[in-house]
Specification:
The complex is a heterodimer of chains A (114) and B (112). Chain A is mainly β and 114 residues long. Chain A is 0% helix and 53% strand. Chain A has no helices and twelve strands. In chain A, the strands form three sheets. In chain A, strands 2, 5, 6, 10, 11 and 12 form a six-stranded mixed sheet that branches. A four-stranded antiparallel sheet of chain A has the order 3-9-8-7, with no helix packed on it. In chain A, β5 and β6 form a beta hairpin. In chain A, 39% of the residues are buried. The model of chain A has no long low-confidence stretch (mean pLDDT 93). With 112 residues, chain B is mainly beta. In chain B, 0% of the residues lie in helices and 50% in strands. In chain B, strands 2, 4, 5, 6, 9, 10 and 11 form a seven-stranded mixed sheet that branches. Chain B has a four-stranded antiparallel sheet with strand order 1-3-8-7, with no helix packed on it. Chain B is globular, with a radius of gyration of 13 Å. The N and C termini of chain B lie far apart (36 Å). The mean pLDDT of chain B is 93. The chains are: A mainly beta (114), B mainly beta (112).
Chain lengths: 114, 112
């Protein structure tokens, strides 16, 4: 079984500042890693994913994440945030097998203010 | 293709009533998933279909919950004898490959 820990429930930041949202996971098998964003009363939209290869993954809207196997982390970063980035961000993990369901963290609310 | 579609978007029901939600996945996707999300939490897996076969069910899915995907296309999730604890957002997702699931906008259920 896997688990995901998002250490911060809320991250307040000013517009144009950099941000890092932290994610740590636990699993006894190899995994795929994902970040999803959720706007109020909406479903989830995939920001980026790590399947294999380069540990630095670039996604949509200027976000990127780095997979660190030794620290079992997959932190999400953006060098300069916008007001429109205000949303809930979820880190998720799935086992590398024929099919696999997602295990999500509890989410981090990113609050961008002017 | 308009993505994963869920109906209704909102449902208010009285405790004890039955409710049914529908999910239309992206047309070529053979994998379909249901998740439940409560306030302040991440989504939790409920059940998974590959084509019309229900291959996995979470322990969260009590006997009052049943899901079907009769022709391998749309899916329904029924909750019988609803309880207040069933109030949540029910999310459907579909995928073609293992690694990328596309989510619908969800059905928000309120049990009063």
């Amino acid at each position: 079984a896997q688990s995901v820990t998002q250490l911060d429930s809320q991250v307040p930041v000013f517009e144009e500042a950099p941000v890092e949202l932290r994610c740590n996971y636990s699993s006894s098998v190899s995994v795929y890693l994902f970040w999803y964003v959720q706007y109020p009363n909406q479903g989830l939209q995939l920001l980026l994913k790590y399947l294999s290869g380069s540990t630095l993954v670039k996604g949509i809207n200027g976000f990127e994440a780095e997979f660190n196997k030794s620290q079992t982390s997959f932190h999400l970063r953006k060098p300069s945030v916008h007001i429109s980035d205000t949303a809930e961000y979820f880190c998720a993990v799935s086992e590398q097998r024929g099919y696999s369901t997602l295990t999500f963290g509890k989410g981090t609310m990113l609050l961008v203010s002017p | 293709d308009t993505g994963v579609s869920q109906d209704p978007r909102h449902k208010i029901t009285k405790r004890g009533q039955n409710v049914t939600f529908r999910c239309d996945p992206i047309s070529e996707h053979n994998r379909l998933y249901w998740y439940r999300q409560t306030l302040g939490q991440g989504p939790e897996f409920l059940t998974y279909f590959q084509n019309e076969a229900q291959l996995e069910k979470s322990r969260l899915l009590s006997d009052r919950f049943s899901a079907e995907r009769p022709k391998g296309s749309f899916s329904t999730l029924e909750i019988q004898r609803t309880e207040q604890g069933d109030s949540a957002m029910y999310l459907c997702a579909s995928s073609l490959e293992v690694a990328e699931a596309f989510f619908g906008q969800g059905t928000r259920l309120t049990v009063v």
